[in-house]
Amino acid sequence: MCKTFLFGLVISVLLINCEKKENGVINYENSSDSSLYISNYSKAKEGSLRSIPQEYINAARNNLHIAYQHTSHGTHVARGMFGLQDYKSGDKDLYGITNNSPHPNKLDFRDNVIADYAAPGDDAADLSINETAFIRATRNYLDDPDNAEINVVMWSWCSIAGHDVAGNYLPGMDSLISEYGNGGTKIGNNPGQRINPVAFIFMTGHANTGNNVGEGLPKNQAELITEHCSSNKQFCLDYYSIDTHDMDDNYWEDAGDNGNSSAYANSIGNGSDNFYEDWQNSNTLGIHYFENKTDPDGSSAYGAHNTQHITANRKAYAMWWILARIAGWNGE
What is the 3-state secondary structure (H, E, C) of 78-98? Predict the structure, then answer.
């Protein structure tokens, strides 16, 4: 009870006189700017991360308890966040993180824990395995008193192509928000309710090499999700945007999830077809980028399906931007 009270007090102090909260996330009355809700390629940079006031990084690290469910492509976020804390001097304190072992002064990150709560007959490994299983698994997870501290939930896509985003994913997320978000029907002090509301982070799907445009394909699916989040002031980690923009903000519509693009290859004409590999090769480890890791104390590893560290680096920056926003930062 004491911990819950202190969490509420901290957030209340940060938010007073500047905002209201709706559906479990910050809703600024005087802003409809989607840039305050969509964490895309423009947020997925070290400069963006370092510009966040430290008080909000501290608030996120000390007060947020995150449950994240994913399969292989979702490792980009987790491995990036696990590696970031070892990047530069001071990062161990600022971006300290644990994996399923909460520790004071470190971000409580619980990796791949929700699928264990799948309903009988459901496969809830990620969003693209079963389009509605994630709803049932999340309810079961959040209804368990052992998970009472959890106040952030995010699910990752594997391949988003061909899935019913408008008919299943978006309504499913909205239903969870209406139940477990701020003011939700399952939030309160009555039997069967939980005290801590939950912020749900939406996600777009990864890019597919040469096959992003068209109904049901990654670009169009991403537009559905980001438009929904902008309209409803919900946070979204925009995988598609990060996969298809190089470090100079050029957009490569044929790019895949590894920075590979034929259009990029044709534009430079030197035989390379990977803008993230090229950027990594022309920059310095420990100064311009860091090694992703399998665990906070684990070994170096690229994000799954990657041959470079940059993709997962960027998705870690994008995730921290969202966490700072949830913790009270106004994003400006």
Answer: HHHHHHHCCCCCCHHHHCCEE
Helix and strand tally (H, E) in the chain? 12, 9
Q: 203 CB contacts (<8 Å, ≥6 apart)?
A: 127, 154, 155, 156, 157, 225, 236, 237, 238, 239
pLDDT at 295: 97
d(CA 63, CA 189): 20
- Which residue, 106, 109, 102, 79, is CA-closest to 94? 106
Task: Select from 194, 203, 237, 184 the least CA-distant residue to 22.
Answer: 184
What's the one-letter identity of residue 13? V
Q: Report pLDDT for 9.
A: 33
Q: Which of 91, 129, 96, 135 is nearest to 117 (CA)?
A: 135
Question: Which residues face 25 on adjacent strands?
Answer: 22
User: Hey, where are the domains in the chain?
Assistant: 34-326
**How, if at all, do strands 199-203 and 152-155 pair?**
parallel
pLDDT tens-place string over residues 270-303: 889 999 999 999 999 999 999 999 999 999 999 9
SS3 33: coil
Tokens of 77: 């976020």
pLDDT value at residue 21:
36
54-63 and 310-326 are packed helices; what angle lies between their axes, rounded to 10 degrees? Answer: 90
Segments of the chain scoring below 50 in pLDDT: 1-32
Residue 92: CB atoms within 10 A of its CB come to: 15
- pLDDT at position 33: 56
Two tokens, residue 37? 């809700």
